[in-house]
Design brief:
Blueprint: E1 12-13, H1 18-27, E2 31-35, E3 39-44, E4 47-52, H2 57-60, E5 64-68, H3 72-83, E6 92-93, E7 97-98, E8 103-109, E9 115-121
Parallel strand pairs: 1-4, 5-9
Antiparallel strand pairs: 2-3, 3-4, 6-8, 7-8, 8-9
């Protein structure tokens, strides 16, 4: 077996409207650590992903990120308040749902259709 000795994993996700998606993630607490005309490195604490200026509907609507959060219910309330402005196109949030695998999950769709699973793990 190969030991890659990983220190970090940074997925790439696309965007339908790069500027709207970047603003959406910033409104959710991410900061932009790097930016050029095609790519933004988005950071939240020690976690990062690359936001691309690239759109392919089928790909983005089948992209999911599972994010562990401390309080899925609080995340839902905060994100619903952010989305109430109407500034983020097709972004939406669903109320928290207790999943069979043990997590309480708030589902969030970003402006391009990427599905975020904000999962609170309960003992």
């Amino acid at each position: 077996m190969i030991d890659l000795n990983l220190a970090d994993v940074r997925p790439f996700i696309g965007s339908k409207d790069f500027d709207v998606s970047k603003a959406f993630y910033e409104a959710l607490g991410w900061t932009t650590e790097y930016l050029d005309d095609q790519l933004a490195l988005m950071a939240n604490g020690d976690h990062r992903f690359y936001l691309q200026r690239y759109y392919q509907k089928d790909w983005l609507e089948n992209t999911m990120l599972h994010l562990t959060v401390a309080d899925a219910t609080a995340c839902h309330a905060k994100i619903a308040a952010v989305l109430a402005s109407g500034a983020y196109a097709d972004a939406r949030v669903a109320p928290p749902k207790q999943e069979d695998y043990g997590a309480l999950v708030t589902y969030v769709w970003d402006p391009a259709g990427v599905l975020l699973h904000l999962a609170e793990w309960r003992e």
